[in-house]
Amino acid sequence: MIHQYKLNGFNIVLDVFSGSVHIVDEVAYDLIAALDGGEVPADACARIAAHYGLPKEELEDCLSDIEELKSAGKLFTNDPYANYAFDFKNRHATIKALCLHVAHTCNLNCEYCFAGQGKFHGQSALMSYEVGKRALDFLIEHSGTHKNLEVDFFGGEPLMNWEVVKQLVLYARSIEKDAGKNFRFTLTTNGVGINEDVIDFCNKEMYNVVLSLDGRKEIHDSKRVDLQGRGSYDVILPKFKKLVESRGGRGYYMRGTFTHANPDFTNDIFHMADLGFTELSMEPVVCDPSMPYALTDADLPTLFRQYEILAEEMLKRKQEGRPFTFYHYMLDLAHGPCIYKRISGCGSGTEYFAVTPTGDLYPCHQFVGEEEYKMGDIWQGVTNTEKANEFKHCNVYAKKECDDCWAKLYCSGGCAANAYHATGSVTGAYEYGCKLFKKRIECAIMLKAAESALED
Amino acid sequence: MKRIQTLNTRDLAKSVKNGGCGECQTSCQSACKTSCGVANQACENKDANK
Fold first, then answer.
1. Alpha helices of A206-263 — where are they, by DSSP H?
2. H helix runs in A53-121, sequence order
3. Closest residue of B to A279, CA-based?
4. CA A321 → CA A68, A134, A315, A318, A324, distances in Å?
5. How far is residue A244's CA from residue A63's CA, in Å, rounded to a whole number?
6. For residue A72, what is the nearest residue in chain B, using CA coordinates?
7. Are A444 and A312 in contact (CB under 8 A)?
8. Please, what's the b/e burial string for A209-236 (b: 16 or more CB within 10 A of its CB; e: otherwise)?
9. DSSP A177
């Protein structure tokens, strides 16, 4: 399977199953399209030669190059994975990541929050040290040979339970060596509770911090408000600046959400970049389509163009020596994920679980509060075998809608929670998300083509 | 090749043999929390990438 597209002056051909990326001229682009469409090679060569006023030999040379790529397994490759006996049932017997919901409460009241103001449709709650400690022990006990174990302190707002977060990190550090493990901690915060102590501790212990900022003040303040309805931009921005400036190159992401209210979301990303932040992420809101801020089909052309503008501006700023990173455009074509990762996806419900303040396990943070998806708890382990099997079998080859999709080895079938909320099944497809995802990958690969052209 | 430039990419078919260690980051942990992309995850197995 191949995918061809033109973007920002580049003609790009992706070979889906080998992962190869080819940048071609108009003639080769047309010839590859003709061959993919089943046209007889000699007829295609004659037709395209006539169209461009080229000697037939030129097309025959191009055809020969295409044949060479085909023989090398870099073009028109067939699917070598579908029939592989990838034993997913047994592959994911171990757990490597937990999302610890240390606080089901929040000091902000963001309109679009999928966690329902931090409570996940339940009662406010804080995780006790004992529950958190047991969760860390549970992770080690079930991690098999995995060395790197990831723990995200999440909420609600995790800084509302900061002392427990610190105690849990210190506990993990005290046991990781003997257990042969390496904990990587992430803190996802709205920033309100950041102070000197938080900054110092994060810079020592957090592998990554995710900071929620939606961009321009008026956009941020329209959704991310405190319990009195006041915008939080002016409160958090100085704190984020201080944290990032003192981070000394350690990982962070400035992460925003865009909605129907700001389909021109690149202006929010550029605002973050102009503030001096360089590691940026901006996500489309995921919500009930009936919400007034839900993205609509009519927004799609604008959003597609926005992703192109983003890529063009990133290229420009890189050339000007003031680059920034956009999470979804980070592609390492040469050293990226292997085929196992690309087929199995995010690992929710198999190697990744969310833990509630009371120690219940869910497939991921987005399933918390969906009672039928309660998988078990950190004392008994995974006991909901029906749902566990559902997730074990949930991979890109289990999704019918993905069969003919060129992007399937980039998204691995998409987010199970989004699929469930959109279709009622984790093996369904959240089509709106698919459309945006495909556009982002096209832009990300175009950026790689452009960077390659600049190096040449 | 005159009309085709091929970028340097990891051979996915080969990674059937040298991949699968599982040490890479869980996709959703790093930044997004509301979508799934695996292509932007780094491979932790430096030997497999040689």
1. 217-223, 233-245
2. 56-71, 88-91
3. B31
4. 39, 47, 10, 5, 10
5. 52
6. B11
7. no
8. bbbbbbbbeebbebbbbbeeeebbbebb
9. H
B33 inside 8 A of chain A by CB: yes
ipTM over cut 0.90: yes
Query: Under an 8 A CB cutoff, do B38 and A329 touch?
Result: no
| d(C-alpha A48, C-alpha A435), whole Å | 32
Report in angstroms the alpha-carbon separations of A307 from A53, A113, A169, B29: 36, 23, 38, 23
A211: closest CA among A139, A278, A266? A278
- Nearest 5°: the CA angle A405, A429, A263 is 90
CB contact under 8 A, A329 and B40: yes
The residue whose two tokens read 């004992």 is A130
Residue that the structure tokens 């497809």 belong to: A429
For B3, the closest of A65, A334, A411 (CB atoms) is A65
What angle, rounded to 10 degrees, do the helices at A300-319 and A431-455 form? Answer: 20
- Smallest CA-to-CA distance from A378 within A140, A126, A70 is with A140
> Strands A97-104 and A148-155, how do they pair?
parallel
Is residue A16 within 8 Å of residue A3, measured between CB atoms? yes
Token pair 């420009």 is found at A316
**Structural tokens at position A441:** 């990958």
For the record, the structure tokens of A416 come out as 């199970």
CB atoms within 10 A of CB A405: 21
How many contacts (CB atoms, under 8 Å) link A and B?
215
Q: Which residues contact A233 (CB under 8 A, 6 or more apart)?
A: A213, A217, A220, A221, A224
Whether residue A22 lies within 8 A of chain B, CB to CB, comes out as yes
User: What is the distance in angstroms between the CA of the first residue and the CA of the last residue of chain A?
Assistant: 28
Distance CA A245, CA A231 (A): 23
Q: What is the pLDDT of residues A320-376, one digit of tens each?
A: 999 999 999 999 999 889 998 898 888 899 999 999 999 999 999 999 999 999 999
Residue B33 to residue A210, Cβ atoms within 8 A = yes
Is A28 an interface residue toward B (CB < 8 Å)?
A: yes
Written as one letter, the residue type at A274 is D
> Which of the residue ranges A82-96, A113-127, A153-167, A320-334 would you say has the lowest mean pLDDT?
A82-96
The terminus-to-terminus CA distance of chain B in angstroms comes to: 25
Instruction: Quick: pLDDT tens for A169-223.
Output: 999 999 999 999 999 999 999 999 999 999 999 999 999 999 999 999 999 999 9
Model pLDDT, residue A272: 98
Give strand ranges (E) for A91-181: 97-104, 125-126, 148-155
